[in-house]
User: Fold this.
Amino acid sequence: MEEKLVSVILPAYNSAKYIEYTLKSLQNQTYKNIEIIVINDCSQDNTIEIVKKIAEKDSRIKIYENKKNQGLAYTTNKGIKLSSGEYIVQADHDDLSLQNRIEVCYKYLEINKETAGVSGRVKHIDSKTLTPLTKDERDAVVKSDYEEVNCEAVWGGIISNPTIMYRKSITENIPECYNVTYRVSADMDFFEKTLSHGAKWVCLDNILIEYRRHRSNTSRILVKEKVVEKQKVLKETLKRFMPEVSKEEVELHVKLACRLDTFNKNEQKNIQAWFIKLIEHNKKNNFFNHEKWLKVLAVNYRYACALSNIYTPFQGYKMFHSIQELIPYLAKDKKYFYEWQKRFFRALSWKIEGKK
Assistant:
């Protein structure tokens, strides 16, 4: 059977430090029928020279340049329009793809025709790592199915943009896939658009890329912008699930989902009422598989309880088992409180760092 063309979109801006290693990880894929669309967004270093040198020996690499710096969302949209493949793979200029990343996703999508796209796990690496793991030896293993992905979207989503592969056909009815007004959360907005059009995504348990974490990561620099943009997308997602919702409820939900703040005493009371309303609304409307919805709610309620416990000792513990329907999905021991509190302080440190 003839292998279908897969288009890899690789936006590049001041990428000289890592672009060679990123490209090598894509060139060495076990799935060979690919085109690598590199779009230079007016880099001020020698990114384009490095790419051109590599492209001389690999005709699969196609180079384009923006006339002026346009940003990641615009450049990604351009890559989608330029792509010729039936499938599209996203790639960040500083990440490393495992050798069978594309093969694993391709085989899964070819078998599961109803699935629009897949995401996967990442392994975090530092600035010194230049060679990826050889590959994740397993065939595709689903970690979160469509129902779970859709449930998670109400809380910000679990699809990892640097790992995705999807059918180009899902972009045909979306005029602007990545919103150019968003600097950080255009990917989250893209996923919401596709979900609202009925696209089915799944998350695989397979490691697909090695994600490079460093101080120049956009998500770490633009923390404030990320929260503002995430709020806008979450409001749209919540309204899709629950059209009739008050402004106060939207604000509380967004604060819960963004996970960067604690809650005052009045908010702590409203949190319990809000989660009960979310449970009852789904019971009545069958928007999600109810058991999976309860599992997702339990994770987020555990987080809310943990943050309520930071500045109001024991309040979170009182809240923890106050909603009967969530009790079967909540862990019984206290270690989860400490885990969520640790996550909060880590996120808060990024927030402070981003303001500098």
